[in-house]
Amino acid sequence: MAVTAEPLPTRLAALALGTGDLDCVYHFALPELKKAIEEIQNIDQLDMLEMLIEGRRLRDISDLPFDLAT
């Protein structure tokens, strides 16, 4: 598990998809990151971000306590 504030989804992918050593990456401002990328209309970055979220490789930091409890 890793917690990050990285603003670029392609760099987040290096962590989240990397060698498989990490089960999940938590972002401290994931909704805000997604909104910012949508606003600048960067389709490549948005596609990468959505892939990471849908694949449950990238999650919001607010999910961390619940994930630890299960």
Overall description:
This protein is α/β, with parallel strands linked by helices and 70 residues long. It has one domain. The protein has four helices and three strands. The protein has a three-stranded parallel sheet. Helix 1 (9-17) links the parallel strand 1 (2-4) and strand 2. Helix 1 packs parallel to helix 3 (43-54). The longest helix is centred in the last third of the chain and has 12 residues, at 43-54. It is globular. The model has no long low-confidence stretch (mean pLDDT 93).
Radius of gyration: 12 Å
Given helix and strand content, the structural type is alpha/beta
Mean pLDDT: 93
* Parts with pLDDT < 50 across at least 5 consecutive residues: none
User: Mind describing the biggest β-sheet?
Assistant: 3 strands, parallel
Beta content comes to 5-15%
Physical arrangement of strands within the biggest beta sheet: 1-2-3
Number of beta strands: 3
The total count of helices amounts to 4
List the helices and strands and how they pair.
Blueprint: E1 2-4, H1 9-17, E2 25-27, H2 30-40, H3 43-54, E3 58-60, H4 64-69
Parallel strand pairs: 1-2, 2-3
List keywords for this structure.
54% helix, 13% strand, three-stranded parallel sheet, globular, 70 residues, alpha/beta, 4 helices
Please give a quick description of this structure.
This protein is an alpha/beta fold and 70 residues long.
